[in-house]
Write a structure and sequence with these properties.
With 309 residues, the chain is an alpha/beta fold. The protein has helices at 33-36, 77-92, 114-120, 125-144, 160-167, 192-201, 204-213, 219-224, 235-250, 254-268, 272-287, 290-300, and strands at residues 52-58, 61-66, 98-103, 107-109, 149-153, 156-158, 170-174, 179-181, 217-218, 230-232. It contains 12 helices and 10 strands.
């Protein structure tokens, strides 16, 4: 298939959601994971795949919108392949300094596509290993992306959908409609891979409560336990808040943000002494960067910095 990447028209943060999608490739029923997975050799091959829509709503900010509301934005192999390629491209795009991840429809993401998962059973354990490895690779790429990603949650995020939110660096949620859950235990399938992201985002006792009970938490509770950063009252306010947060980050030195995000996740797994040794070296190297020199100079001269990156 020869395809080109097509962007949608820009959308202002305060305007009602209206995304004009390119002509779509029809979704055929999934057969097996090997058939439904997509591989891309270049950005051109994303043309017409509107499962995920990219827009550029503000300078330095990109928005990725999950756009399969009929399937509750489930993380099918196809959806994960397309989202993975978009994340990879964002990592290479120097014009992007921050990313917002949103979704169309009442459900942010319902986790894995259970119809697809049922069909994968024909392949045995290797089929399931393939799909869970694909999901894990996607979540790791979000954490390792050198640009911050903010989840804009206006609806329900369950199982791998909750994992997706927890894998993002920050999250903004709608007080009225956002709900978060890891309900796999209710169908005899413990949310083991979502557990990785969740247990690294919130306290162990709160993570275990969500994992063992399968019960949903609302936006207020999600903020109390650290799953989301900010809660606002309406969907329109969620979009505005997420975009404002992304735009604020986009004003910073992209070099400093890249260094900081990588160091943050690296030091989390280290003992205290090793973490301080590591971050001391990181800060020393950071001080040698042009943007650090410019930032210090601008501060002393009482002017706004002019970043090189």
């Amino acid at each position: 298939i020869s395809l080109r990447l097509m962007w949608c028209p820009r959308r202002l943060p305060l305007c009602p959601r209206r995304l004009t999608a390119p002509r779509r490739i029809a979704r055929s029923p999934f057969r097996l994971i090997s058939d439904s997975a997509l591989k891309f050799d270049s950005s051109e091959e994303l043309e017409q795949y509107d499962d995920v829509i990219r827009t550029n709503p503000a300078e330095g900010v990109a928005e990725l919108t999950l756009n399969s509301p009929k399937s509750r934005n489930a993380l099918s192999s196809r959806m994960m392949s397309i989202l993975q390629k978009h994340v990879d491209l964002l990592g290479e795009d120097a014009s992007v300094r921050a990313v917002v991840l949103s979704a169309n429809g009442p459900v942010f993401c319902a986790g894995h596509n259970l119809k697809e998962m049922k069909e994968v059973r024909e392949k045995g354990i290797k089929g399931y290993q393939q799909i869970f490895n694909q999901c894990s690779a996607l979540m790791k790429s979000i954490v390792l992306l050198p640009k911050p990603i903010i989840a804009q949650v206006e609806g329900i995020a369950t199982a791998a959908g909750c994992q997706l939110v927890a894998s993002c660096d920050m999250a903004v949620a709608c007080r009225e409609k956002a709900r978060f859950a890891t309900p796999g235990v209710n169908i005899g399938l413990f949310c083991s891979t979502p557990m990785v992201a969740l247990s690294r985002k919130i306290g162990r006792n709160h993570a275990m409560e969500m994992l063992l009970t399968g019960e949903a938490v609302d936006a207020n509770r999600a903020m109390e336990i650290g799953l989301v950063n900010r809660v606002v009252d309406s969907p329109d306010m969620v979009s505005s808040e997420a975009m404002s947060l992304a735009a604020l980050i986009a004003q910073k030195s992209s070099k400093a943000v890249k260094i900081g995000k990588k160091a943050f996740y690296s030091q989390l797994e280290m003992p205290l002494e090793e973490a301080y040794d590591f971050t001391s070296d990181v800060m020393a190297a950071n001080m040698m960067e042009d943007d650090a020199d410019e930032g210090v100079t601008a501060f002393l001269e009482k002017r706004a910095p002019k970043w090189n990156h």
